[in-house]
């Protein structure tokens, strides 16, 4: 028996029909709201009980010392961790002086709905106090996707069957108590009371707090205001002390009467230390102005703006999949959070957990460029520009880091908030130089999809050149002229500090060529960076000579030099409880065996598919499939795409579902720490790059759609140079057809057109002339390769059969 | 110009003719006294000024948390660090109420002499107080080599030219103030006030302190007593408080009169926590008894016993080298400290710094088995038995560690005090599995040299079997049947986590064979350990199939698989200030290049010379010589031995001198943290295994002596199965002769004989029949291979020429 999903399968919302005290933290991540600047975890309005309170502001962080039992040269000495900003979500209710608490009295009804089109979290409650007084509560929370500094709560209490005296305490609270975190290397560093109070102020309906982080000295101004409506006699007063602004509303309600509070929050903060009073004043003014503007616009306008922004997003981002409603819901949930994490104005990073939790200390990793930006490039390209400009803004830090490491060019950090390396374990941090190539690749894809020449010529060129310089310095030529990158760590963290990691090498090759191309195209800009013909020639030569390790005997690429001759992992002797392996085996064992945490060669074949023949892809996929344990949530989506490409469509569906449901079903039991934004993005990737077969190697848009027969149709769009390309795929309905696909162009004049490849056939699709093509019948992919024993993904078709049977009442 | 050595060149002592305030810590290490149980740094009697106060008791330590920025499975969570035991060296002098302090008044004379035959540190001072009162002070300090629990100070003050009122405060002081340590990964963890007081007691002339370490709960009882002689009116009284016993002596001296205090110290401690009162009482009684016994014997007896013990040691351990008096002095100084560190009764470890400082946190590393025990095996074999029994006592911990690492057999710790792994950086700690083979090798050598069958059958067999089990588990067979050890770290710490480290593989091969041999010889004992014929067969098969990485093209062995194809280090672009490289380059750079911190292939050729042909040795030596930077003090002695073996006798002399003078000349600027006992032992190794050509592969004693023409003679002895084999080598005096060697046997009856090989010729030498043989003329070794630019050892012949010229007054 499969347990009933926590959230019913509904196409455009995630609904929690009751409150599960064991699922608090997971629900808080699931119901987190964010606009990429402000992130509010889905904590209950009244604060308690909670899994982990969370109010995050992009890049607002504290520093702490990184201490090592045995330190080493250039080990980072200071870490950065996201901290809890003043919490303005808090609204505490007292019913005849009894505090509303879901753990007391009788909870007749408790439901929360995350509306994926409205962009709101709505909660409805019916509660009877221990003394027997019933109330109904409705709260709607919103973090404005159009107003970066604004969040709002609409809070409404109704008396049910007897008169009730209400008191509502609506707080803006700094340095709230935080629970201690578990002893897991992946959990966050908790800093207690990271804020120091600078200023506090109250008016009648709200007030202001100004704080600074204790050590990093980052200032934050938080402003709160309330509009209260209710029966006669409702009162509203506000007090402020250094760490709290509290607005207290009292009302006497007769049965059926309602009191309503519309709470507005405004935040303004700096991501560098400000010592002077002047910037502090400016921050206070900025946060106040944001609240004033929102108040002037009114609640209904906030809601309407939110809806309009989401309508636009869904117009290009929505993926419709027929035949699997659970995945359909999940992919929308996933895309909603990708949008929340990434799709915002301005120069800012996209952390691995978005602003939904403090897992990974709120750090930005390669997840952004390698998993999130590919999705945003085709659904919300302006967000990619902002994220890459953030990398560009940190180029000086990356140059310094390269110098410190005694390398050349730029060495981007493996994990960071403010730009400097915060990785405390260099073999799986600093050595993962591929982050440089991942950034370069994101630049290339963005420029290819948007044609943004201004960006290409400016920050793009800088990023391409400085990342390429690192590869040239790190690499070495062998006696036969092959170019090697030794001692690096690739995506798979179950090996580290290896020679010639295949992924790193193919990505670095692209990086080197792209830098040379960019310099050739913009020689004036390149000259400013000191690039001359000798340097571009050296880049091209290194790229041409790049060694890709291959095992002739086994006929597969090696994940790194010598990988395929390492000992095999004893999967038969590994218990189910032993996963994830990193918590039960030392690196010593993991590193020297053929066990793969996450797609590495498979990711190389996804990102640089042009480097592999179809036969190589099939052999490589089969080989690594049997050795990949997916102890990382980053793996399934890449495996889905390659499974689809090599023709294992059922398996692709299995991995798609695993990626899509990662957080909605808490598959890795880590959702409570925050959402896995890369995995969420992976749902789109699995669908659009997997079943849709989208690729963009060398700036050419190509598709090779193909659906398994049990999924009747797939529809998606791609933002391409200002246009929206609509792709509609249908599966073959009988044994003789593999289905068909229709390409359509939207958003330009009638002459607007897109050049693309369909299963290798060049096509031009214009607004006036949609094109429909049959899907060629698949080449026989052979038997599906097995995953390691016990590690196969759930067979999706079995789940669907089961759900169908359940629907039929079997 | 070469600076005048700090200590004049004198054959049997180390004399410091004056006090250098910039050399305090170095002198404290140099003048440290120890009997392997108690270690007293050469702090001034009065305590101040000091570089680092130090009173150490073998294995007496405190625990602390090892915190990691990013932890991992089986990362050690608790460290151990040596702590300062109650300091009984302190004798403070007040001259007419003015404290004697070398920094005040006038220091007319200050000399310290470490007498290498007497085993005492003698200090003479003439000091004039700021008020103009002159005194003479003479103190002699001794840590008894025959009484493990006893140290003593003979302290004598004489009035010079006017009457003087003296007060002498002689302390036993717990938790004295410690300076903060520098920020260097090799420095120690300082714990402030690690002791808690349990008991204190005073009599008239002394008292007792009982303490416990705060966290590890190890108890220590310290007892002090004084015998005071002086003119009439001398008083003596003692007070005790929880952290101090103070005996105050007052005397009024007329000019020429003397007061003398003979202070006795007794220590008793436990190396495991004791909760009950009973063991504490026993410790107090033990320390008291030690002092009582020493007092009964009297000071002169202590001095005589010390002398007798050293006479016996020098009879077998002394190495006489003609032609280099500076090295002659150094090798005696070195051997004296090797004796002090290792040559004591009982089951106890030999830390890397002995008991001379808190560098490396007082940890025991592979230094013991690989560098110190080979010397002690031939000079003081009973000490080897004790050190190996200590490893055996920790076998249960090593078995647990192997299980924790999910390996088999035993995994001995890379660094420890009490037996558990304390390494906080696993790539250069836990991954250095060769420690297992190093221990096995030490067992083999000890058994071979002593014929101690009882040890072989008992602890020896246990150690051989459990260490071998690890290798079988770690190794893997390749498709062609080769046996590989992947992902380990060898001696060279500038590479880590490599496949098939040559040293590890040849040593593990020996380990596997030795375990099988031992099990065959003692099948009943082996059966108790569960060893059957299948297991011994598997060990022999793995040994026979052991892969030794070799580069056919370059004609050299590879330090590890692929090593010789790594990028070369840019020595030309490396500044002199960039050494040691680990403080100026990240591991990322070091690991992926052909730069060698310390002898690795060269050490393999020393330890397992039978595995290499003479031509291979010559080629390997030349190849690695050019890539070895000697950033570790462990390197020079091995290089000396192999340089001698392949015929570069001048170079061997250079490396000999570097090893011998490491601490006496503070060559690495680290002597202040404690002596490098392995490097000190290396002086003997360089002489006896280098110029003497001693080898013991497969239990066969062989010699291949050969001296450079500028070193006329070398004489040394070897303890061999209860006998003392005397070897006297003379250099060739003209171009036609390569010199000769005489072998003689001492210590048995007239029929006692030793079988040995002389330059490949089997000989039997009996007490009655010494054998003299010519040294065969050398094969032409070719040109001396260069060290990396700027890293060549000092050319010893130039130094000698310079010294000679200086002696001639040039």
UniProtKB/TrEMBL annotation, chains A, B:
Biological-process GO terms, alphabetical: carbohydrate metabolic process
InterPro entries: 6-hairpin_glycosidase_sf, 6hp_glycosidase-like_sf, Gal_mutarotase_sf_dom, GH65_N, Glyco_hydro_65_C, Glyco_hydro_65_M, Glyco_hydro_65_N, Malt_Pase/Glycosyl_Hdrlase
Domain Glycoside hydrolase family 65 N-terminal: 16-269
Binding residue positions for substrate: 366-367, 597-598
Domain (Glycoside hydrolase family 65 C-terminal) ranges: 694-765
Active site: 493
Biased composition (Basic and acidic residues): 795-810
Stated family: Belongs to the glycosyl hydrolase 65 family.
Protein name as it appears in the record: Glycosyl hydrolase
Lineage, opening ranks: Bacteria, Bacillati, Actinomycetota, Actinomycetes, Micromonosporales
